[in-house]
From TrEMBL:
EC number: 1.1.1.205
Binding site for K(+): G314, G316, C319
Keyword set, alphabetical order: CBS domain, GMP biosynthesis, Metal-binding, NAD, Oxidoreductase, Potassium, Purine biosynthesis
Source organism of this protein record: Sedimentibacter hydroxybenzoicus DSM 7310
Record has Metal-binding as a keyword: yes
One GO MF term: metal ion binding
Highest taxon above the source species: Bacteria
Top EC group: oxidoreductase
Full protein name: IMP dehydrogenase
Needed co-factor(s): K(+)
Sites where the protein binds NAD(+): D261, S262, S263, G312, I313, G314
Gene3D superfamilies according to UniProt: Aldolase class I
Length: 496
């Protein structure tokens, strides 16, 4: 007979936090949002912690190398999307690990055989007028020259003119040697009145470019999430199909933690993937798994050796899995249930397996709710997609701007491996949509404001850490009438 859970499947909007005593030391400046991301034994310190409990979704429209750098700078982690070739995902990871403030890895590169037409098209696409000319057109090939807007005249030069005829060739370039500091690079830029200084290795391969305008970036954010070599920490998505090839490439590129990306993680495919990774690399390679929405799924993946477990099916803003397949669970109920399983597992085994609430965050306070319900960290797609740093186009829309945001289960993403559960490849029906989200400006600003709200709510609840919040929190279920009471009501709003 069917096993029916009579408790309704609830979502974040159905709960509110009740305040507790705020002691005088409980102020925003004293709130610490550090949180574990990988399993650890009782009494031991977790090997990997986040400085803020945020991760960005494993999605084409959210997490590339630029998002990863911006988020790690703020103390969180991105998981680079895996619905791309192994080489290009590994290259994104490498770019994050190579990143140094002020040192740009060029994404505008051509070869001497390209034409003025190619230069103009690249400029149109990237907005960059300085281009590195390398032997093979790659970002780390042998440097043969540079092209800037001053090297050609659109009105006079034929479009098929070869780059080698108008570039500034390598022998006339002033370059910096790899290992140079930003302030030394800037001295060279100023002394020689340059706009850009290519940095090369001993074989004259391009490593970075330093631009005149970037000098002010040379300051560290104290929250930055860094590895022991002071490089930004970055995660990478994998799937349970090509992991035997993808994982070694990502590990080699420097990924700090991996995560199996699937809409439904309670599967033998995931257990096989985790076990393969753990047997090949002992415990040196960390891997998260998911998604699950209840105890059994959690226990299965924890036993298989997952370092963290993601929660959420069908709650993502672009996700239509519940409509298409009738499977899933309200995100709040899922988090509460899995958090209980995590705590029981800890009591029974002495192993703490962090959990991540993935998807369905609409308002900032939903993050505080997810944490208070037991999540160690959250994963967000829509939230990050709106920032400048996401990989998608910013488009004029009415009086403002929007950014594109599409699901990994949409036709656009073509992410077959996420949905086919190891069966015959190919997406038979869509589980996601292609959409816009309101443009949200710079990540630093938006995230800064969200963090302030979370910390301030935690102070209202008398909590200075996420653990204290989880231990002391009191939550109340709201009625639909009290929801109306919670917004502006019974007044005529100005400016509308
Ligand atoms: P949201 O933050 O609500 O936009 O949700 C993001 C999450 O939605 C992702 O981390 C992922 O778990 C899920 N997702 C991604 N693509 C799709 C889909 O196409 N159905 N769902």
């Amino acid at each position: 007979m069917a096993n029916i859970i009579n408790e309704p499947s609830r979502t974040f909007g159905e709960y509110l936090l009740l305040p507790s005593l705020t002691t005088k030391d409980c102020v925003v400046e004293n709130v610490d949002l550090k949180t574990p991301i990988c399993r650890f034994k009782k009494g031991e310190k977790p090997q990997l912690t986040l400085n803020i409990p945020f991760s960005s979704a494993i999605m084409q429209s959210v997490s590339d190398n630029n998002m990863a750098i911006a988020l790690a700078k703020n103390g969180g982690i991105s998981f680079i999307y895996c619905s791309q070739s192994i080489e290009s995902e590994a290259e994104m990871v490498r770019k994050v690990k190579k990143y140094k403030a002020g040192f740009v890895i060029s994404d505008s590169n051509l070869t001497p055989e390209n034409t003025l037409q190619d230069v103009l098209e690249l400029k149109e696409r990237t907005g960059h007028s300085t281009m590195a000319i390398t032997e093979d057109g790659s970002s780390d090939g042998k440097l043969l020259g540079i092209v800037t807007g001053r090297d050609y005249r659109i009105t006079r030069d034929p479009l098929d003119k070869k780059v080698k005829e108008f570039m500034t060739p390598a022998e006339k370039l002033i370059v910096g040697k790899e290992g140079i500091t930003l302030s030394e690079a800037n001295d060279i830029i100023w002394e020689n009145k340059l706009n850009a200084l290519p940095i090369v290795d001993e074989n004259f391969n391009l490593v970075y470019t330093v631009f005149r305008k970037d000098y002010s970036e040379d300051k560290d954010n104290p929250r930055s999430l860094l590895d022991d070599q002071k490089r930004y920490v970055v995660g990478a998505g994998i799937n349970s199909r090509d992991y035997k090839e993808r994982v070694p490439a990502l590990v080699e590129a420097g990924a700090d933690v991996l995560c199996i990306d699937s809409s439904e993680g309670f599967s033998e495919w995931q257990a096989d993937t985790i076990k393969w990774i753990k047997s090949k690399y002992d415990d040196t390679v960390k891997v998260g798994a998911g998604n699950v929405v209840e105890k059994e799924g959690f226990k299965y993946l924890a036993d298989a050796g997952a370092d963290f477990i993601k929660i959420g099916i069908g709650g993502g803003s672009i996700c239509i899995t519940r409509e298409q397949k009738g499977i899933g669970r309200g995100q709040a109920s899922a988090v509460l249930d899995v958090a209980k399983a995590r705590d029981e597992y800890f009591e029974q085994t002495g192993i703490y397996v962090p959990i991540c609430s993935d998807g369905g965050i609409v308002l900032d306070y939903h993050i505080t709710l997810a944490l208070s319900m037991g999540a160690d960290f959250v994963m967000l797609g829509r939230y990050f997609a709106g920032f400048d740093e996401s990989p998608t186009a910013k488009i004029k829309y009415g009086n403002g701007y929007v950014k594109e945001y599409w699901g990994e289960g949409s036709n656009r993403a073509r992410n077959w491996a996420r949905y086919d559960l190891g069966g015959k490849a190919g997406l038979q029906f869509e589980e996601g949509v292609d959409s816009y989200v309101p443009y949200a400006g710079k990540l630093d600003d938006g995230l800064g404001s969200t963090l302030h709200k979370i910390k301030s709510t935690m102070c209202n609840c008398g909590a200075k850490t996420i653990k204290e919040l989880q231990q002391n929190v009191r939550l109340t279920v709201v009625s639909s009438t009290s929801l109306t009471e919670g917004g502006a009501h019974d007044v005529i709003l100005k400016n509308q």
